[in-house]
Amino acid sequence: MSVRVRHAEPRDAARLVELAREVGGEDEGWLITAGDWRTPGEERRYLRAVRRHADAAVLVAESNGTVVGRLSIARDPHPASRHVADLGLMVARDQRRQGAGTALMEAAESWARRVGITKIELHVFPHNEPALALYEGLGYEREGLRRGHYSRPDGKVDAILMAKELE
User: What is the pLDDT of residues 55-81, one digit of tens each?
Assistant: First the structure.
């Protein structure tokens, strides 16, 4: 599969909302949300705001001209941890294990290095073994378990905190 990674643009809003609803609605519960997301108009405004913000980025992976993945990354605003960024990733079900997630993660690390970030953190549900394998394969390490960290309609969910120190 050929994947192209680029910065998200406001014109991507409708597809990104659709992608989030698809992934969030999967039975496995891969996302914090359970299928609810911003409207396309809200997403468009969000993407415009992020493009003007030097401390955050939204990247998309395209395959055959269709957006199949999204990665959001943002620098921690606290002065003592401005060297840290947090990220979130989602990839369309039919595109997983085909390189889109890896391409997005590598692009995020490149962006982070360019803006002076030296550590990237992320949260992943303990039951998301494919994501754990992806992140560990890219050098992310488990730093802790956050019990009942997220509230979902079906109750509280634990999150594994993972991080990678960038060179």
Answer: 999 999 999 899 999 999 999 999 999
The whole-number pLDDT of residue 148 equals: 87
pLDDT (0 to 100) of residue 34: 55
Tell me the average pLDDT of the chain. Answer: 91
Among candidate residues 45, 28, 16, 29, the one with its CA nearest the CA of residue 104: 16
Structural domains in the chain, CATH included, are 4-118 (3.40.630.30)
Q: Three-class SS string for the chain? A: CCCEEEECCHHHHHHHHHHHHHHHCCCCCCCCCCCCCCCHHHHHHHHHHHHCCCCEEEEEEEECCEEEEEEEEEECCCHHHCCEEEEEEEECHHHCCCCHHHHHHHHHHHHHHHCCCCEEEEEECCCCHHHHHHHHHCCCEEEEEEEEEEEECCEEEEEEEEEEECC
